[in-house]
Design brief:
By secondary structure, the protein is mainly beta. The chain has two domains: 107 residues, 2-Layer Sandwich (Double Stranded RNA Binding Domain), CATH 3.30.160; 164 residues, Porin. 15% of the residues lie in helices and 46% in strands. The chain contains four helices and 16 strands. Strands 5-6-7-8-11-12-13-16 form an eight-stranded antiparallel beta barrel. Strand 1, helix 2 and strand 2 form a beta-alpha-beta unit. Helix 2 crosses helix 3 and helix 3 crosses helix 4. The radius of gyration is 50 Å and the shape is elongated.
């Protein structure tokens, strides 16, 4: 008795299985189509659905009970047509919204969605059949001539062969593909630098400067300039003068390197001016100028921190080609040094 009661309870509690649709099963369906003027009407959409399902029955205009209800509405939003389609049936409700450039495209898409909802298997077969290429027609067989005893196959003419290049009467040709020479990508360096030197006169100076360089691999060419900051020099009796100078120059360099270190060796030439003037307590405040022309030879060490930044150091030998002496009331206070040396520390940006 207990088992019988349990079986009854389970029978009432179990949900009804979802019916499985088979291809070609009749479906009672309703179809609503609302679209503005200029769009295909309801009958035209049904005809497009029937292109996928030729055996489909026409849906009634009204029905109290239908296995499937399909409702579609088309609206215009600016230059775009939008469709909102609802499919209601035993599997629940499904809502699709999509847009297109024309109402005809929306009508085709709505017909395809409706056909899939009505019978997905037959619709897939229709789409596949429409997409399959038509088989090519075989040409009709040509009639064979009646064989005759006396007939012999005609001799075949020799097949012409293409003459080989280099044979007699045919000039040999060759195709040479030449690649353009690789372009050099010169790098540009901008440097800000500070100096400490003996020279241009027979005393020590501080200086600031900068340079512009072009370089590629083992060579480097640069132009640079600098300014020796004014320096006060006094005689034993207290009379004094102020001395300053500037220079611009150019150099060519050979640049061997090891890993991230470069060792530029740079001969060149520079020119400028050395200026001296008396200052207090000197009563003679006259000013004098001398040309500065010198050959230079520098040995540097550059640390390439990144592809765009390098820390540069250099020790340069100065070999002046000019001479000159500054004097206060006949007493020499400074003169152009016969040999000078200049140290440099700079930061270079590379592009």
């Amino acid at each position: 008795m207990k088992w019988f009661a349990l079986a009854l309870l389970l029978n009432f509690a179990a949900p009804d299985p979802v019916p499985v649709q088979r291809p070609g099963d009749a479906v009672t369906w309703m179809f609503e189509w609302r679209a503005p003027a200029g769009c295909p009407d309801r009958e035209q959409i049904i005809e497009r659905i029937r292109e996928y399902l030729p055996q489909l029955e026409d849906p009634p205009t009204r029905a109290a009970h239908a296995m499937l209800r399909i409702a579609a509405e088309v609206v215009v939003a600016g230059d775009t047509w939008q469709a909102h389609l609802r499919v209601s049936g035993r599997d629940g409700d499904q809502v699709r919204s999509f847009s297109a450039a024309s109402c005809s495209e929306l009508a085709d898409a709505s017909a395809l969605i409706a056909a899939v909802a009505l019978d997905p298997v037959l619709t897939a077969r229709s789409v596949a059949a429409a997409a399959a290429p038509a088989p090519a027609l075989a040409p009709p067989p040509s009639p064979e001539p009646d064989p005759t005893p006396e007939a012999r196959p005609a001799p075949q003419p020799p097949r012409p062969t293409a003459p080989q290049p280099g044979s007699e009467g045919v000039p040999a040709t060759s195709v040479v593909i030449s690649e353009p020479p690789p372009t050099r990508n010169f790098k540009v360096g901008l440097r800000a630098q500070g100096h400490g030197s003996f020279g241009p006169t027979t005393t020590g100076y501080a200086a600031v400067g900068g340079g512009l360089a072009l370089f590629d691999g083992l060579w480097r060419w640069q132009v640079e300039g600098g300014y020796w900051i004014p320096r006060r020099v006094s005689l034993a009796d207290g009379r004094a003068g102020r001395f300053q100078a500037w220079w611009v120059g150019t150099r060519g360099c050979v640049v061997p390197s090891v890993n991230s270190l470069e060792f530029p060796l740079c001969p060149g030439v520079e020119a400028g001016q050395v200026i001296g003037a008396g200052i207090e307590p000197t009563t003679n405040r006259s000013r004098a100028r001398y040309a500065w022309v010198a050959g230079v030879l520098g040995q540097g060490v550059n640390w390439v921190i990144t592809d765009r930044v390098a820390l540069a150091t250099e020790l340069t030998l100065l070999l002046p080609f000019t001479r000159g002496q500054f004097a206060i009331d006949g007493q020499a206070i400074q003169s152009i040094t016969p040999v000078g040396v200049r140290g440099m520390l700079g930061l270079e940006l590379r592009m």
